[in-house]
Amino acid sequence: MLSRRLSSTALGWSILAVVPFVALRSGSAVRVAIDKELEDRRTTEAIRHNWSGIAGGSRPLGHDSLAITAVEFVDYSCAFCRAFEDSLDSVVRADELALGIRFIVARRVDTLEARVAREAALAAVCAERQNSFRTLHSLLLSDSSWLRGGSWRVIGRSAGIPDIEDWVSCLHSEEAGAILKEDSVWAARLSVSGTPTFLPLLRRV
Prior knowledge:
Layout: H1 2-24, H2 29-49, H3 51-56, E1 59-61, E2 70-74, H4 79-93, E3 99-103, H5 112-128, H6 133-142, H7 152-158, H8 164-170, H9 174-189, E4 197-200
Parallel strand pairs: 2-3
Antiparallel strand pairs: 1-3, 2-4
């Protein structure tokens, strides 16, 4: 009788020992939730401690005198980014939000959409050099016809780019490519994988 009780007790402790192991193993719902919480905390800390770098390299929208208080990661081929544009633009224009823009682009550009989306991001980077970023940014998000391919010179003229030839030349420059790469580095560092993604300024407490 005693041996049976000891066996039952041992079995009970074995089950209690196995349950946490099973619950926390890779891929389990509990483990996924814990990993997500830890990742969110790491991302929050990364934003809080690196805000000057995150915001400082972004392309600003809104009034120049306002310090950037949120950064949006954008892909110009993203339908959701275009859907948010009107509402977001009205808030920025009312000076209720100082927004900075960074880009996410596909690493592989083996489709027309991926290729022109990358070119669009480079075009926006280069437009900033001629103080035309905001106009081009709005154009690329309000009209998706450029996704089917076309002349960047025509698009640039529609956006009012002052020096079209210099702008087109910039699209293929190492400098523009490096700026776009920096955006990708920040996206990876902050676990940003989809668009639009908004990162707010987090005050230290």
